[in-house]
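Help!! Second protein's tokens look totally different from the first
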Amino acid sequence: MLAVAIELLIDTGRRPSEILNLPWDCLGHDHDDNYVLVYDDLKNNRPRRRLPITETTAKLISAQQHATRERFPDGNPTELVLLPASDQNGRRAMARHQIGRTHRDWLEALPTPIRRSDGSSYDLTTITPYSYRHTYAQRHADAGVALDVLAELMGHELLSSTQAYYQVGEKRRRAAVDRLANHRFDRYGNHIWRDAQALLDDEHARHALGQVSVPYGTCREPSNVQAGGGACPFRFRCVGCDHFHTDPSHLPEVKAYLHDLLRDRERVLAATDLENWAKTEALPSEVEIRRVKDLVHRVEEHLEQLTPVEQADIATAISAVRRTRQVTGLGMPSINRQPDLGKPLERP
């Protein structure tokens, strides 16, 4: 049963207290009949949360349900816990110190050290049952899961909380930025070649200093750079500014901004309770809409001309770069979407 608890920590990324307090009937299904784990977020007082899980994890839970029922055949299933203590009637969960002690003994009994990718050994005293919540986040981040989706999986309301749970290695990040360096575009959608290396150095410096990008590209305007991207003197009219550059990793934001411009234009034109001067002020510029459309078209056209191998390399680079980027509200239209959690990630 302790081994089941450890496997559930690894597979689900839940907190130890959440796993130990799982009810017997914690296995459910979503609207597509895929398995979900039903648990209580005890830290934030959010009961009956639903987490997508793999079929392997579901089988593990099902087997434990069967074992618990065999131990307590007379117990009411609605009152049983999945991982019960041995001295009760199946209604009280095992103590947390049990899983901590057993986990520590298991680590110390391993025949070989646990090593990182660089060959160095982990300090076993730093590996605790809670560590698997971090590895859950890292595993999904390495697989390219979007930040908003990962935040939903982790049960976080703030993206910054999720970002604290995983890292993107500097070597991988630099390699990703290197691949994108030759696929830069100016505000007209012109492919930039001549200063790719200078832009590359700027991008590495920006990551090293922890600066944020502008909503859908990078900005070299001095006062805005000094403010970390939050003080544009031109109200973020990026496609009309020579300080603005972009690359394919920002394409989703550029498309979303174009969608917002078109939606706002239709909404303003359909309004019947606005005076003409107010409509003129609120109406998105046709020049800006045309410029953004052209920018999207040129970037997509450029990507289509690449070979399949080059496209795959660019896709990998985009995934790595986007995981390190946090686009915050900088005076641009906000984009609110319900993340699609998709299929759960199988543990290796």
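Here's the second one for comparison:
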Amino acid sequence: MRALLTSSGITNSSIQDALVALLGKPIAESNALFVPTALYPFPGGPGMVWQTIAGPRSSTLCGLGWKSLGILELSVLPSVEQATWVSTVRDADVLLVGGGDPLFLANWMRRSGLADLLPTLRSEAVYVGVSAGSIAATSTFVETYTEPPRGTDEPQKTEDVVFSTPEGDLDRILVTGQGAGLVDFGVIPHFEHPHHLDASPANAEKWAARIPAPTYAIDDETAVSVADGVVEVVSEGNWKLFQP
């Protein structure tokens, strides 16, 4: 399976060209499934899901002009027969895995069986991650929380970390979790974003130091493309590679 891991979706022509290259055909000829699961732990999550599917946020993911678009909600899959959804995933050209809470998402990727299914999908299928969707595709990841995360039984390591910000210290709980292992490197999204101060260059280095693999810090104009084991950074913005 191929992968395109982004911070905020298909935000520029370079990333879109990379997506088309991975698909091997136009977006208008490709069938997509959108995974909204990571948004539900947040207040207003259902509304954010709608915005991503058909509202203001749709232009960088669900609203790109797919031949067809389906919704794959991971939290319902354990309660239905696998035969009713596995074939749909196998037939899809692309999985669009949205942002939100990566620990919650990784938990449901495992509980639903999707994490085990991903390595068996056809080689030309594409996994497109957005923020948490990109983080959860990795083997080991970190994320910051203001309080211990709930709603997950995923293995995790929690430690108190003080991140520096222009206004002073920003107290966060740093959680290390296990993802699907689709790629063998780490991802830190929203690099240098003014509204994601945890991902400043200095703080991203603290994140990366806890990931035992090369880690790409990418801004919202950058993506990491993976095809046939070849990793390529596609960027119209800023990014940095941290070595373990």
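Reply: Different proteins will give different token patterns, so don't panic. The chain has one domain: 2-140+178-242.
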